[in-house]
Amino acid sequence: MALVLNDRVKETSTTTGTGTFSLGGAVDGFESFVTGIANGNTTYYAAVNRDANEFEVGIGTVTDASPDTLARTTILSSSNSDSAVDFSAGTKDIFVTLPASKVAFEDASNDVTIGNDLILGSDSAVLKFGADSDTTLTHTDGTGLTLNSTNKLLFRDTGLYINSSTDGQLDLVADTEIQIAATTVDINGNVEISGDLTVSGDDITMGTNTAGNILVADGTNFNSIAATDLSAISTIASGDTLLAVDASGGGLKKVARSVLVAGLATSSALNNISEDDTPQLGGNLDMNGSDIVTTSNATIDLAPNGTGTVVVRGNTNSGAIVFNCESNSHGQTVIAQPHSASVTNTMLLPAGANSTLVSLVSTDTLTNKTLTSPKINEDVAVTSTATELNLLDGVTATTAELNILDGVTSTTAELNILDGVTSTTAELNILDGVTSTAAELNLIDGGTARGTTAVATGDGILINDGGTMRMTNVDTVSTYFASHSVGGGNIVTTGALDSGSITSGFGTIDTGSSTITTTGLISGGSLDIDNVLINGTTIGHTDDTDLITVADGLVTVAGEVQMTTLDIGGTNVTSTAAELNILDGVTSTASELNILDGVTSTAAELNFSDLATLGTTAASKVFTADANNLTTVSGAVLNSEATLSDGANVAWDVIASPVAKLTLGGNRNLSAPSGTTPAAGQFVSILVIQDGTGSRTLTFNAVYEFAADTAPTLTTTANLGDLFVFRYNGAKWLEVGRNLALTLS
Fold first, then answer.
1. Given a cut of 80, is residue 557 above it in pLDDT?
2. Mean pLDDT, range 31-53, rounded to an integer
3. Which strands form 704-705's sheet, in the order they lie side by side?
4. Long-range contacts of range 638-647, CB-CB < 8 Å, 24 or more positions apart?
5. What is the DSSP string of 197-251?
6. Rounded-to-integer distance, Cα 172 and Cα 170, Å
């Protein structure tokens, strides 16, 4: 049995008294308790007597029987002082509700109060905190609760908390003290203490025998004993060693018992502790950031045994040795190749007495050594190969001669052009002072390339003047050709004569079988042409007399004009001759015809004015308004019925289809009207028909308004129809009438 809530569960009952309700079946548009809640489950219910001022809200148990029943298990509130109501006669509405007393809500302070347990039933339930839900508490089935990420569980203030700052680590933090009140604290692992360890008791108890190893041992415990005399360490063997604290900050040091005894014999305190002559480390020596130093110019010797080596290990970075200056302000670093290089190298020191790798005061020779990317003066890299450098072998040029190349920007390929040149210095000196570019000099080379540079007044032209190349002005060339006529023969061209002009007195131009073409205007005197052809069609020839004449912009045709297309002002005339002949005999003035100027009506729309086809008189076919703005129609006004397409969401264009019908093929939703926005006052109607199955539902969009804001319950019988009429008020479609359960055949 479970407590269940559901929507749209409602039945009626005529039960009287305080006993169990006998249910009368689901109300139209609702489900029964057995369907919505299920047999044996409980639910919150409300019972209201339609015929008396009686109500009851409580918890009831549903039973599937004949009839179904609802037992009144618990009364939460009622018209009988929150006790069971002794219902009188009449129809009671019994429906599922959520009592106000069972609703958790935010009060005026945004607090939510729950009277008893808060149960999160999911095995992976999550509690979220904060405006952005950045802190969560997640339940893991059979495991516990998880605080997300590195968030903290705080106590009192921000200085006291528990959290996990990194994976695998639990942090217990207090700004003053953490107190564990227990008889025994069992720690199953190593303990690391960054600060001081203070033991309030007498003993530090070890799990194993540590006699003679730490402080003063009695075989089991390390006892806190004040070492004021020799008797305090009398149990320690003479050859044993102890750990003592160096008060100067040196930490723990190993000291022999004999040394300690000697110190105690001369002083009440230990001023200096001497190490073993041959100490041995049981593990790594951690300098903890300190240095290994010597005094009195002593030498630090690293003396590996046999084939042992001194290794500077890498850790994240490659191993490195730094040689500092005497002030420790500068250093030279020798660094190993990185792991990615996958190489192991050996640097062998030079042989011979007093040999050095590099000397600052002498000249050193490198023999049989390969230099990779050497640099001169630290910042200039030598990229020449040995073969290229060997070209200098045997060069007798002086420094001054070689300096001639200083500043030369020519490439190797450009300098190689000089390879094999036999010119003398004097001949080459001709180039001295030449400012021409390579491109300008190449113009003398007989290439075929042609540019598109426009020629203008003042431009220069390169001319061969009797074997000497000279620059002259383009205007000089123009003057020369202007004073030297072309004669003594024909002008022959392989292309079109497409620039300049042919002046009077030239004579006759005989093109033979060639064509004279132009994209410009042929002007001048009269043009005497035997035939004028346009796309092969003759429009005039010498056998006709004044076939076509042109005078003052008027074209006169001595016969008929035939054409395929008439273009007036850039617009083609598409009217037929028959259509244009309609104007024959028209007596309308230009102003009367201009009435049509700006008319956008189509021919079909203008044909509505043709009243002769509608009746015997025009007046009988025209809608007119009287003095009261009333329009009288002698016959019926018909809106054809449109069939709407069935689907999950039904669309209805109320402008195109004000009268519509819809056959339901399933549970549907009637969407808000589509198409053009209607005008206030428009009436529409829709006939909703059940298909052969029946019991289909139709949900109306909120734009459809019904009495008491309650949508109608459709007839459920197959093939019956419900008719609804609406009026538009400018915002909503108001129901003005309905007719249900209509037989349509």
1. no
2. 96
3. 642-643, 659-664, 683-690, 720-728, 733-743, 704-705
4. 641/687, 644/686
5. ----SSEEE-SS--TTTSSSB-SSEEE-----SGGGGTTS-TT-EEEEEETTTTE
6. 7
This prediction has a pTM of: 0.29
Q: What burial letters (b/e) apply to 370-391, b meaning 16+ CB within 10 Å?
A: eeeeeeeeeeeeeeeeeeeeee
Tokens of residue 723, six digits: 């008719």
What DSSP line would sit under 412-440, residue for residue?
HHHHGGGTT----HHHHGGGTT----HHH
The two tokens of residue 157 are 């203030």
Peptide bond into 67 cis (omega under 30): yes
The backbone torsions φ and ψ at residue 682, rounded to the nearest 5 degrees and listed phi first, read: -70, 140
- Whether the predicted pLDDT of 591 surpasses 50: yes
Residue 635 has φ and ψ, to the nearest 5°, of -115, -170
- For 666-705, what is each residue's pLDDT tens digit? 999 999 998 888 889 999 999 999 999 999 999 999 999 9
With the C-alpha atoms ordered 726, 729, 731, 734, is the resulting torsion angle positive or negative? negative
36 or 221, greater pLDDT: 36
* ∠ CA 151-152-158, rounded to 5°: 130
The predicted pLDDT at position 142 comes to 85
What CA–CA distances, in Å, run from 223 to 8, 193, 201, 247, 691? 81, 20, 10, 20, 100
Structural domain spans, the chain: 10-102, 126-173, 203-266, 642-743
> Does residue 7 contact residue 44 with C-beta atoms inside 8 Å?
no
Residue carrying structure tokens 């620059």: 471
